[in-house]
Every structure is written in structure tokens, then in C-alpha cells.
Amino acid sequence: MNNTTFNNHPIIKNSNQYFFEKKYISIHSEDRDISKYPISSEFEILLPQEYLNVASARLYSWSFPANYNVFSIGNYNIVMNFKFLDLYNPGEYGEPDPLASAIFAALYNYSDKEIVITIESGFYNPNQMAIELTNQFNQTVTNIITNYFDDPNNNISTTVKNNFKLNGYTRFSIAYNSVAQRLFFGNQTDKFIITNESSSFISSNIVNTTCLTKNLIPEVVNWGLPSYLGFTRCNVTAYSVSEYIELLNETPFYTTLSNTFVPKFFYESSSGDKYTDGIWIEPSSLKGSSIYYLQAPFKINFMGPSYLYMEIDGWNCIDETSPYNLNLYTTQTNKRNSIVNSSFAKIPIPTTPISQWFDDNMGPYKYWNPVAERISKIKVKFRYHNGLLADFSKFEYSFMLELNILKPQQEKAYSIVNAYDLSQQQSYGSKFI
After folding, report:
1. Cis before 370 (ω within 30)
2. How many angstroms separate the CA atoms of 404 and 131, rounded?
3. Which residues, 6+ apart, have CB-to-CB distance to 17 below 8 Å?
């Protein structure tokens, strides 16, 4: 008995012919599941359709807000420390000021003790930073003195307390030299030191660090607020003008005002007869007092990160170096501590807050061989080189992906008739006769 099988859908032989198509996907951060991904720097999103036979992909264009905080708790750069070395003691100079004597008594126990100041998170220009630091230094010391005065065991008179409440501690003055592009720190009467060697830039008594995820990459350059202000890891001591001349054999920029050496920015002087031009810290009227000051060794750097790294799970194609650090691993092996396939795109940050930046045609491609059969969703992450997530706050952004897709085609014979001269070309597959 013969059985005949009839099939209306015969198997079509794969001709290995493909149509190359570029497909673009526009993605907005506000379209994510905000309840699941409240922070826009990392989220997963379903694509508009399933994309088949994807041969390659790249970041085509983007628009990001430049509203990030250069200085923030998450960046670990809002704290710096200092100590008082020598306090002005009015009794040594026969100064009968009771308030000055009470301030000396309040700060005496803080001699050579580390004092921590914390600036407000945000983005600063140099002059704003100088004002912020001046106010924070003075306010921190004011709080210490106020706590001492409020202790009934210290027997501080009501008159002294009231006089102090009028202004508080105002002896610190911090200024920006716009020519040298450096910050100058000064105190009218008390000698101090910036303790950059301290390891307590972030501690439990400042912020609750249990809510933060510290990156594992060691900080070599931007290790804290002092590094942005132009300091190294070394402590820097403030000296009086006479100490600069006598002890350090240096000639600082200064002038004399009321028989007192006063540091000065000479580029601000409009007339040689005006001694107050360019004087960024006023001398104290207290007998025997001296101004102590220091300058940051290097220029300031408030620009923040230069690049943003974009990661997409399974799509990363850029290898990235990591900061060198001296440890047992690097000294006893010849292996690298860098990262292979660390990111999908590297995005330059060309501007500073507050603004929006746009760009397109990012170079790197992610290739699949064989092709990716099916792509229906992506998981995106934006970070900086040190591993910290980018902070877009509540500002949204968008980007466009370019997918290069191979669509299988059937090999067919066809004829083309030229309407002008009625000539004919006939095709058998890819050959014309």
C-alpha cells in the first residue's frame, strides 16, 4: 500500500541571503518602572518589540542634564579637618578683653584636637567655595565655644555670652586668588594646620555611611574635599608673615597696616596709596596678635567627573583601566588590575551645571557572532570611573540605540523592464543576464 504525503508548506532552503537594516530605539529614563527603580542611574526596561538577528549595536545619540553635585555625601568630598596649634592668649600681651579671654578658655581644650567642617552639597564656583569655607570654619568653632559657654560649670558671665552671640567666632577668612587660581586660608589670631593626612574624612559622627555604597576602586586623585581645593595628602601649617620670612626663608605677598604684617593680593590694588586694596584678611585689634595664613599648593578643581560610563548587561565591549595601587597582588604578580568589557559606551561631560548637553555618533560597537537571536529588554547603568553611580537627582534624560539587524531573505528570480528603452534584465538569484 502506497501512502502519499501532501504538504502545502514545503521547506524553503536557506539561501544565506540577508537584508541589512538599521533600527533605532529611543529610550527615556522617565519611562522606567519608577516604583522598582526610583534612581534613574540604573534600571531595566522592556523594548518596544523583540529584535531578531541583531549583529551589532551602539549608542547613537544622547541628552543628559548637567545638574549633578560635584560635592556631595555620595562623592565623599564635603568634609575637611583642621587643628589649632597655638591659640591667642590675651593674658600674655596684657589684653584686658574679657571676651577674648573666654574664647581662649573655651578653645584651650581643643588645642591639637581635630575639628571637622562639613560644606553643603552642590556645585560651587571658586568665590562661593571661599565664602562657604569661611562661614563653615567660623560656625564650627562658634558651636564649640557656645557649648562651652552654655555649660554652667564654666562660670561664663552673661555679658560675655551676649557679646559673643552678636557675631560669634569670626577670625577665619578664606579667599580665592583668581590669578593664581588657589585658595588662601587665614586666621586673625590663632595658628592652625589643615590635617590632610587624617583618615576621618567620612566618619559615623558626620553621616550615616551605612546607607551608602562605597566604591572599591582606591581614590588616588579625588580622595576628598581637600584634593578639590588644591591640597595633597600632606598636612599644611599656617604661619605668620614674620615666620614665613624668618623661619621658612620665604618672602610672602604682604603689606604693613597699622604696624602689622597683612597678606595681600597685589593684583587687586588699584592705587599704591590704598593699603586696603587686595587685603583679604583684616588684622585684629587685639594686642600682640598676628595673622596666620597658608595657601593651597595647587590650583582648585571644581569641574567634577570628565566622563560618564554606560553599562548594558551583556552588551559591554569597552576595556577599562583601573588606578594602580601598591598591594600584595600588584607587587607579586604580573597580572593587570583593569577590567575587560567594563562598559558599553564612554560619554564625555562637556559642561558644568546648570545646563543640558547633547551629542551623537558614539564610536564603539558591540558585535555578536553569531548574531543575537532575540533582544527584548535591556538593563542600563550609568556610573563614573571610580564606580559610583551617576546622580541625576530628579532630572530625566534620554538616549538612542542603533541596532544593526540581519533579516533573512528568500532567493527569487525576477525580471526588470526598463521603461525608457524596453530593455530587459532577468535575474536568477543574484546573477543578471
Report:
1. yes
2. 53
3. 408, 409, 410, 411, 430
Domain ranges of the chain: 19-68+305-407, 79-295
Q: H or E stretch including 357?
A: strand 356-360
- Indicate the DSSP class of residue 279: B
Low-confidence winner among 30-44, 295-309, 404-418 (lowest mean pLDDT): 404-418
Ranges 37-51, 53-67, 235-249, 401-415, most confident = 37-51
pLDDT digits (tens, 9 = 90+) for 325-345: 666 666 666 666 688 999 999
Give the number of other CB atoms < 10 A from CB of residue 21.
12
Give the residue from 374, 377, 370, 358 showing the smallest Cα distance to 312: 377
pLDDT tens per residue across span 168-219:
999 999 999 999 999 999 999 999 999 998 866 444 334 444 444 444 445 5
Q: Are 382 and 41 in contact (CB under 8 A)?
A: yes
Facing residues of 256 across strands? 261
Topology, domain 19-68+305-407: Jelly Rolls (2.60.120)
The residue count of the chain comes to 433
* Burial call 309-343: b when 16+ CB within 10 Å, e when fewer: bbbbeebbbbeeebeeeeeeeeeeeeeeeeeeebb
